[in-house]
Structures are given as C-alpha cells and as structure tokens.
Specification:
homodimer, Rossmann fold, 2 domains, DNA-binding
DNA sequence: TAGATTGTTAATCGATTAACAATC
DNA sequence: TAGATTGTTAATCGATTAACAATC
C-alpha cells in the first residue's frame, strides 16, 4: 500500500511531540486524505483501533513497519560515486530508516579508494563478487544513463533483489527483480505542466483542468 | 496526465533510432501498458493518429511537449549546494529538458562563491530578491529537513510557482503553489516492502499479494 | 448512559480495457 | 479491395467515500 509510508512519517512526527493517541480524522487531516480511507488502509493491517478513542501511535508505527518490512534491515549498495551517489550514501540517512549502505562502487580509477561518508569507494570490478558474498538485497543506480543497463544486468546476474534507478532510461529486467525508477527530470516536467496550467487558468479560462 | 512523460521518453528514444511511425500496440509494449490506454491517452491530445498506419513519432513528441508545457523554458533555481544540489545542477541535464538552472544558493559561507557546474554559489540572503527580479518559476529544495520549511516560506513569499522538495517533511504551503515531494527514503522503503513480499512468497505461501 | 470513533458495508466514482465501427 | 490500426463506446474493474451499526 503506497500510503502507508506517508502515515508512518506523520505518526513518527506525532510521536516526537508526545502524542500517544490519534484518530482517523486527525490522521486524515495531516495526510490530506479522507478519514474513511485512513480507516480502510489501517484496517488492512489488522483491527488495531479502539472505537470511541482512536489508535495508539506507537503501536501503529510498529504495525506499519512490520507490514512494510522495515523491522528488518535491507543491505544496500550504491553504484556511482558522483554527487548523486555521494548524496545518497552520506546524507540520505537511510541507515536509520532500515537501509544501511554497505558499499559504494565506481568505475573511475580516480574515485576508487576515496572516502565517501564512512565508506571507501570500491572498484566496479568487485561489485558482483561483493553482492554475492554479502547477500546484498538492494542496489541504487546513480550512474550515467549509458551505463545503467549494463550495471543492472551485472547486479541481476549477481542475485540482487531490487533496484532503485536514477538514470532516465527504461531498464530491461530479468526474473523477479523489482525496479523503481526515479527520473528527476520527469518530476520537473510535471511541475512545468502545472506552471503551464497556471498560465492558462489566468489567460484562457475556457479549459477544464485534468 | 502522468503517463505522458513516459510516452515522451519512449518516443524520443524511437526518434533516435530513425523510427518515424509507431502504432499504439508498439508504444503499449514499450511502456508496459494496454494499447487501448495508449490510444485513449493520446486521443486526449487531439486526433493525431492515422487509421491503418499509426502515429508519426516527431509530431507526437511535439504534441506531448506542447501539452506538458515543455515548449517553454521554466526558470529553475536550486537551494542547497551540497552533493544533492550539485548533482541536480551539474549532471541532471535538466537544461536540455526545458528547465535551465539559473542559480544555486547556500547558507554556508564556505560554499558561497564556489563553482558548481557553470554557476557560482550565491548567498541565501540574495535568494528572494533574485527570484523576484528574474521571475523564477521553479525552486528545488536540496536542503536539510530542518531548513526546508523556512526556505519554502521565503520562496513562496517571493512568488515562486512550484517547488520540488527532497527533504523528508510535509511542507505547509500557501496560495496556489504546487509542491512535489521526492523522498528517497520512501522509495527505498517501497523496495524493502517488495523484498519482504518476496521472502514471504517463498516461505509462507498462504498470503495473497497486495 | 451519552459522546466519540472504529470497522465495514454498500453506493459512488473514475480509471481501465475489450470490442468494434470508421477509415486509412 | 483486404489488412491494419485508430478513435470511441460500453462494459468491467477497482478505488474512494458516505453512512451507520458496533462498541469503547
């Protein structure tokens, strides 16, 4: 369920402000969704609410984490030690969210051996062996578009489970590997679309929004 | 329409391979969707196909760009000159996709004045004035979570149109500002969820997938 | 008990897709 | 004309939400 991470973030914030109980109405307001939807989403986890009272924040956090598989750590590697790969490795704070970055790789000999965060950049040649030997589950592709498919092929051959791909290409995948594409250019394009709509709204009010 | 950027990318690839005509069947296969959906999506742009033949690639690219507002350039600034902000400014290649990054800002005096790509990092103090003076439409927030709301408030006060936010916080927004959140941690969490499902599928085959 | 809120049903809404006449 | 493919209708499917009995 795609909305559970949103609830999780809100609940985590609430816990920091010492809130121990929350109603579906409150949660819905914070998440900008319908209260019935919140109850339906949460009832999917089990019947953990108390009628007339609401939900216990800490318990709900635990149950969502359980459902999302965040009680386990998933070993993650980053491929590409450029700015993006470094950003993810260093300040992503992913380790605290259950995704320890256990290695970072690059093909550029000038980058191999340098330090990124707490890791030393390894040579791409060692990647497959490392994945196999350490049972790495998740690979983050922060490489140029031209290299993405090749790196993905290597990782899949080495038995990786899931890929997070930042290169703006449609990867060909084998087996049951899950791929998630994040194209930052597309994110901007969507904003551009909204900017255009804004312009049309003020000048040509004869068009229904989509 | 959220699928148009996907079609656009595929069509652009096709154009590079000298393909001038494409059918809804072919496009659907490349985009991993139903052919009827492709035709319905494209018919929204207008009736640009030819029965018995298909669609002209170049013309379709133009029409999608027009619809998405990609024939105009949208002035973009990046706030935060860390690894993430640098990655976006330098190798995002967003300028070629219609989003020229016209300035980058940081609060850290050690970063102000340094060069990122073709830009000199400016002081955050100058940001509002710059946005107003140059009519910047889009702001990219590559700052720590703690700073995100404050920077967003400043940008909105200065009249920015849309924000792309990488900080894992729910921003409070005023007026008709469009905000798009990209939480890389959430992206990983979704992969973690799939990893967990994979594990359950092999051990406990008594659970229907979601 | 009275008030509040859940869990769930049933209605509604919108998105997807099969099917096919139109037509190149 | 025969084959291919669009554009669109109508059916299907799934997601959202209003409503309310259950119950704390």
């Amino acid at each position: 369920m795609n909305r559970l991470p949103v609830y999780l973030q809100i609940l985590t914030d609430l816990e920091l402000t010492e809130t121990s109980q929350v109603s579906s109405d409150q949660l819905a307001a914070l998440a900008n969704v319908n209260a019935a939807k919140v109850r339906k989403d949460l009832s999917y986890l089990g019947t953990y609410g108390t009628r007339g009272v609401g939900y216990e924040v800490a318990f709900l956090i635990y149950q969502i984490k359980r459902e999302l598989g965040l009680l386990t750590e998933w070993k993650t590697i980053v491929v590409g030690a450029g700015n993006l790969g470094s950003a993810i490795t260093v300040n992503g704070g992913f380790a605290s969210r259950g995704f320890p970055v256990v290695a970072i790789f690059d093909v550029d000999p000038r980058k191999v051996g340098t330090i990124v965060g707490e890791l030393t950049v390894r040579n791409l040649d060692e990647m497959c062996e490392f994945v196999r030997a350490n049972g790495v589950q998740i690979g983050v592709l922060a490489v140029p578009s031209t290299a993405a498919q090749s790196v993905a092929d290597d990782l899949m051959a080495a038995g990786i489970g899931s890929l997070l791909n930042f290169a703006p290409v449609v990867l060909t995948t084998t087996k049951g590997v899950t791929v998630r594409n994040v194209d930052l250019g597309v994110e901007l394009q969507i904003l551009g679309y909204h900017e255009q709509l804004r312009g049309q709204a003020s000048s040509q009010p004869n068009r229904v929004s989509v």
